[in-house]
């Protein structure tokens, strides 16, 4: 009697963090990481990375262009906990300290093909005027110790932070010439 071997499927993500619009800021860099369920495992590529510092373009858009490549492969036995990409954007404040300028997350697309995603970014804000003044005076704005919390709903119900979404702040994820592929194969 032959027992059926468990099968897995692979999720290959190939693309780039193309650009961002942060009208008030310049000289920013981007970090990414993936958040996924317990049945998922990375098999190839990098599951986190950090880009170069970029300055605003000189045209009317004043875009921050990274063209930061992403190439990772995951395997899983079920779709629960489908991977999400978490982006964190950092830049200098008036004192020259690196502070968070935005957090955002989006699920990796569920269907094969070329996809373009625009991610709204937010920053946590202090809830009291004293905390706001103290964080400004010390040069340390509120930020998450682990940016992966952005992709998780659990434990964020009673956060002591208000989400501030600056107007016209976004990051664009674009596919590279390769496609998102979901091949099925035995383990």
UniProtKB/TrEMBL annotation:
Q: Which GO terms describe its biological process?
A: cilium assembly
InterPro entries linked? C2_B9-type_dom
Q: What is its main location?
A: cytoplasm
Using the record, list the residue span of the signal peptide; answer none if the entry has no such feature: 1-19
Mind telling me which Pfam families this protein's record contains? Answer: B9-C2 (PF07162)
For this record, the Gene Ontology CC terms, alphabetical, are: MKS complex
Q: Which UniProt keywords apply?
A: Cell projection, Cilium biogenesis/degradation, Cytoplasm, Cytoskeleton, Signal
- Location of the protein in the cell: Cytoplasm, Cytoskeleton, Cilium basal body
Say if the entry is tagged with keyword Flavoprotein: no
Family membership: Belongs to the B9D family.
PANTHER family referenced in this protein's UniProt entry, alphabetically: B9 DOMAIN-CONTAINING (PTHR12968), B9 DOMAIN-CONTAINING PROTEIN 1 (PTHR12968:SF1)
Describe the task this protein carries out: Component of the tectonic-like complex, a complex localized at the transition zone of primary cilia and acting as a barrier that prevents diffusion of transmembrane proteins between the cilia and plasma membranes. Required for ciliogenesis and sonic hedgehog/SHH signaling.
Subunit info here reads: Part of the tectonic-like complex (also named B9 complex).
Protein name per Swiss-Prot or TrEMBL? B9 domain-containing protein 1
Q: Which organism is it from?
A: Saimiri boliviensis boliviensis
> What taxonomic lineage is listed for the species of origin?
Eukaryota, Metazoa, Chordata, Craniata, Vertebrata
């Amino acid at each position: 009697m032959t027992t059926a071997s468990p099968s897995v499927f692979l999720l290959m993500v190939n693309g780039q963090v193309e650009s961002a619009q942060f009208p008030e800021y310049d000289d920013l860099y981007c970090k990414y990481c993936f958040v996924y369920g317990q049945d998922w495992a990375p098999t190839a590529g990098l599951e986190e990375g950090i880009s170069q510092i970029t300055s605003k373009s000189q045209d009317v858009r004043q875009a921050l262009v990274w063209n930061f490549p992403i190439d990772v492969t995951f395997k899983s036995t079920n779709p629960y906990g489908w991977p999400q990409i978490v982006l964190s954007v950092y830049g200098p404040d008036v004192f020259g300290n690196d502070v968070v300028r935005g957090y955002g997350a989006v699920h990796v697309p569920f269907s094969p093909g070329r996809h373009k995603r625009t991610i709204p970014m937010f920053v946590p804000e202090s809830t009291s005027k004293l905390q706001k003044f103290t964080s400004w005076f010390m040069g340390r704005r509120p930020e998450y110790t682990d940016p992966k919390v952005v992709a998780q709903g659990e434990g964020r119900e009673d956060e002591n932070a208000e989400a501030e979404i600056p107007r016209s702040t976004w990051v664009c994820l674009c596919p590279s010439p390769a496609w998102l592929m979901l091949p099925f194969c035995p383990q």
